[in-house]
Amino acid sequence: MSPNYMRSFSEGCLRPPTVIGQFHTLFFGSVRMFFLGVLGFAVYGNEALHFSCDPDKREVNLFCYNQFRPITPQVFWALQLVIVLVPGAFFHLYAACKSIKQEDILQKSFYTGFYVFSVFLRITLEAVAFWLQIRLFGFKVNAIYMCDVGALEKKFNIIRCMVPEHFEKTIFLIAMYTFTVITVVLCVAEIFEISCRRLGFLKT
């Protein structure tokens, strides 16, 4: 791919054809990624090291932590961010290959429909991630986790484990839910903006 295509692709990703789309890119790229990258590491970075059970043995701690966290929140949210970016990136790659200018996207029905489809796909992926987050993490992190160690052939099948910094993790969970909701609202608002422009209620 030539440098011109790469430049058009990067400009399309950073400067979508709608005002709300540009705000979404700013919110998504700066606030959400910064929150996950910096604060997420501070809250979850040493969780496995500080997760302890009774009896406090390495094999028991590891077994129960893997049961408590089938997937770490940082990995889940990083995958969510990457997957949600794919529809928009695919559209802007197509626009770059076809030499479509950003100001022309909302002028032709096919390009507009393709772009709106990518936004709808974004909404769907965010909704699926929201549902998965509820199934995996819930809305609250409890201080005590009851671990089933029957597979380790221990004397007691259920043991108590202490979850470090559970209150901070609860706040972080609520924040990530909030970011997902904000992103979905912005995507819906972007579709509304596109509809208003196509109907002539807003100037291009």
Automatic annotation (TrEMBL):
TM helices/strands, residue ranges? 25-44, 75-97, 109-132, 171-192
Q: What InterPro entries does the record tag this protein with?
A: Connexin, Connexin_CCC, Connexin_N, Connexin_N_sf
| Gene name of this polypeptide | Gje1
Provide the alphabetized UniProt keywords: Cell membrane, Disulfide bond, Membrane, Transmembrane, Transmembrane helix, Transport
In the UniProt record, does the keyword Aminoacyl-tRNA synthetase occur? Answer: no
Specify the protein name.
Answer: Gap junction epsilon-1 protein
Q: How does it sit in the membrane?
A: Multi-pass membrane protein
Localized where?
Cell membrane
What cellular component terms from Gene Ontology apply here?
A: connexin complex
- Family assignment from sequence similarity: Belongs to the connexin family. Beta-type (group I) subfamily.
GO biological process: one example: cell-cell signaling
- Entry GO MF terms: gap junction channel activity
Domain (Connexin cysteine-rich) spans: 125-194
Question: Subunit comment for this entry?
Answer: A connexon is composed of a hexamer of connexins.
UniProt xrefs under Pfam families: Connexin (PF00029)
